[in-house]
Design goal:
Blueprint (H helix, E strand, L loop, with lengths): L1 H5 L4 H15 L7 H17 L3 H22 L2
Helix pairs in contact: 2-3
Amino acid sequence: AIGGVGATWNTPIETVRVLMQKDVSEGKAPRSTGEYFSEQLENGGIPALYRGVTPRAIQGIWQTIFMVVFPNLLGI
């Protein structure tokens, strides 16, 4: 579980980064990071900043299990 939580702490930053990259790829002038954060908070509140957090948490949990638990079970 700690791996899943650790993998998700920066989700709001990643959400804003993806939105910025999307605008640039569409030829739009990029705005400041704060403007993207404000827009997301106004339109969807805190949950809007955590879009995609569930798959990232599951991936983090799986990676922790694979890299920590399995080697311990195998005595590696």
